[in-house]
Specification:
about 475 residues; mainly alpha; 23 helices
Length: about 475
């Protein structure tokens, strides 16, 4: 009986009229004060609460937002259908899916390249070289921070942070204070380095692909981003313990074709930039073309490794290659397969991104983003609104925050768009949970680099945050 009562109540709610700006088909409805809008915002908050609690619940962050996205758009579709409009909601969701598809293809190509470089042992070779040098703890603190800052504009900040943290943990065995400080430094450096490059973070990629800023415009943020890392790094360096750890003897050879993959990646980036800047084609087209080149080169790598093994795979490996006993036999040596690199892409992140884009797009169609834009950019002003975006990014993932800003598309100067790109990129450094790099390192250095270890130095990171904004206004004043 209770379920019948609930169903009856739901049907009664669906029969209530929806307040709207106009009820004609094709006209946008204002659903913010209606049960549809309220239900959608509550659902999004609940889903994002599960995302924030991922570390404790061990529930992948993509799962709740995927479900929330589907329900939110169902609510939007029902609302418009009840007004006899079967086109507006469909057109809006297709627009969001198209935006996501372009970013998905771009990121899939980039992640496949990074995974291939990792498989070719390029990152392990760099790590082995660093740990075998015998640098002092303070020198290693600066080297890992500097490398994180300059690698993250090309590789994603999570991969960069995990690589540098592996170096820190190898040379700092027993030096927990050093490891904690170095991890904080790496997180700040990786996030700051990604802020001045269109490829450094998903947020900068979204801004570039949207056509808001040109490729070269991002480099105006180099000095502010550098200051964002250097200010807290200098302050933390005084607390780094002195010491000369023993060099760890380790040698890793780069596999065949590793350096060629790096060259192909650079050429792929150049192709994507050229297609976007000169032909006004989506950058994803250039990245997917480059992925095709990597696939062809992957064939060359595979043939080389087959020749090195005598032209064939012997024993159980041959059975596996032929598709027999695949579920029972794991080969000791398997030739390179580009699809393994594709499979190892961050699919949870990519699916999370889909859920976020559609959730935020649905809330925008309901009318919430127009209200938020009016408050933030109308009443607070662009500067304070963009500073607030960075602070929000320390609590809420910067992807939905930036996508919301792009959906609002406030009328701002290029300088203000650069400011919001900067703050969204580096604001996550204020807390360890504010970026993928921070969350990843809490898992890698569990019990050493913690939320509270990071929080202890939030004041220094905040000084870097303020300093980077001040330098942006000083250096790029002509763009404001």
């Amino acid at each position: 009986m209770r379920y019948i009562a609930v169903l009856t109540g739901l049907l009664a709610a669906l029969s209530l009229p929806l307040p709207a700006l106009a009820s004609e088909a094709g006209t946008a409805l204002d659903l913010t004060g209606n049960w549809v809008g309220i239900s959608a915002i509550v659902l999004f908050v609940l889903a994002y609460g599960l995302v924030v609690a991922e570390e404790f619940l061990h529930l992948r962050k993509s799962k709740p937002v995927l479900i929330a996205a589907g329900i939110i758009w169902t609510l939007v579709g029902v609302a418009y259908a009840m007004h006899g409009d079967t086109h507006t909601a469909a057109a809006a969701v297709r627009h969001n899916i198209l935006e996501y598809a372009e970013l998905l293809l771009f990121l899939l190509a980039a992640m496949t390249y990074i995974n291939t470089m990792e498989e070719r042992q390029l990152f392990n070779a760099l790590r082995a070289w660093l740990v075998s040098r015998g640098f002092s703890l303070r020198t290693m603190f600066w080297i890992t921070g500097l490398l994180a800052f300059f690698i993250s504009p090309i590789a994603d900040n999570l991969t960069t942070a995990l690589l540098m943290a592996a170096v820190v943990m190898a040379v700092g065995v027993g030096q927990n204070k050093f490891i904690a400080l170095a991890c904080i430094n790496i997180v700040v450096a990786a996030n700051a380095g990604g802020a001045f490059s269109p490829f450094g973070d998903i947020t900068t990629l979204m801004v570039w692909q949207k056509g808001v800023l040109s490729f070269s415009a991002f480099f105006a943020l180099f000095i502010p981003s550098l200051a964002n890392w250097l200010i807290p790094a200098v302050l933390m360096a005084f607390a780094v313990p002195k010491g000369q750890p023993h060099a760890v003897e380790e040698t890793v050879d780069v596999k065949f074709g590793g350096y060629v993959v790096v060259g192909l990646f650079i050429a792929t980036i150049a192709t994507a930039v050229s297609m976007h800047n000169f032909l006004h084609l989506p950058p994803a087209l250039g990245m997917m073309t480059g992925l095709g080149l990597l696939k062809v080169f992957g064939y060359i790598i595979r043939r080389h490794e087959l020749r090195e093994s005598g032209g064939h795979i012997s024993g159980p490996e041959q059975l596996l290659e032929n598709g027999e006993l695949a579920s029972l036999v794991k080969p000791r040596h398997k030739p390179f397969d580009i699809f393994i690199s594709m499979k190892r892409a961050e699919w949870d992140t990519l699916m999370f991104f889909y859920g976020v884009v559609l959730c935020v797009g649905g809330l925008g169609t309901i009318g919430y983003l127009a209200q938020a834009s009016q408050f933030m950019y109308g009443e607070l002003g662009a500067t304070w609104a963009n500073v607030l975006v960075g602070i929000l990014s320390a609590i809420v993932d910067n992807i939905p925050v930036m996508f919301a800003v792009l959906t609002m598309y406030p009328d701002m100067s290029h300088g203000q768009w650069l400011l919001v790109t900067l703050t969204a990129g580096v604001g996550g450094s204020l807390l360890s949970i504010g970026s993928a790099a921070g969350v990843g390192l809490m898992g890698q250095a569990r019990g050493i680099y913690t939320f509270f270890a990071h929080l202890k130095w939030t004041w220094a990171i905040a000084l870097g945050y303020v300093g980077s904004i001040w330098l942006h206004f000083l250096i790029n004043s002509d763009l404001m």
